[in-house]
Amino acid sequence: MAYFSLLKEQLRQIRPQAARFALFTLEGCLLGLFLKEHIVGVAPCYGPSMLPTLHATGDYLLFDRFSHRLGNIQTGDIVLCTSPSDPGKVICKRVLGLPGDSVDIDPRRATTKKIKIPPGHVWLQGDNMAHSVDSRFHGPIPMGLLQGKVRAVLFPSFKLVQGGLQKIGEVYPV
Description:
By secondary structure, this protein is of the alpha+beta class. It has two helices and ten strands, in the order H-E-E-E-E-E-E-E-H-E-E-E.
């Protein structure tokens, strides 16, 4: 009998601790889910379209999920976006045009054709234009497809990702 009364006493002491542990675990999971869905995310990046900025395989990117919602996207930023041609796929590209900007559809060609970016859209292109399916094929991308702004490469080697564009060669006025 003494054994059962001792066991009952131990269970009375464990229940509040177990309840606090379960509540703490639930709160932690909910906080983690909120952070993952609304604040930051981690995504793999595959393919040659962003060479040499990103590797063709194996880069894991840290991105924020709120910059584009706050209007904090600038020309030169690298973003993750739902693919316009395959909604199950996420693509990684550089922002080359914002609403109201005029951009060259394909600056590699001698005859340049410009397009004006409509409100609520961006122009995205890969850094490796020869191997990138981007706005040159899809046209301006709705901002609603943006998932976030890339902040860092986490793996295989950590590095912060800086936005901005670099001047390559001479630039002539149009």
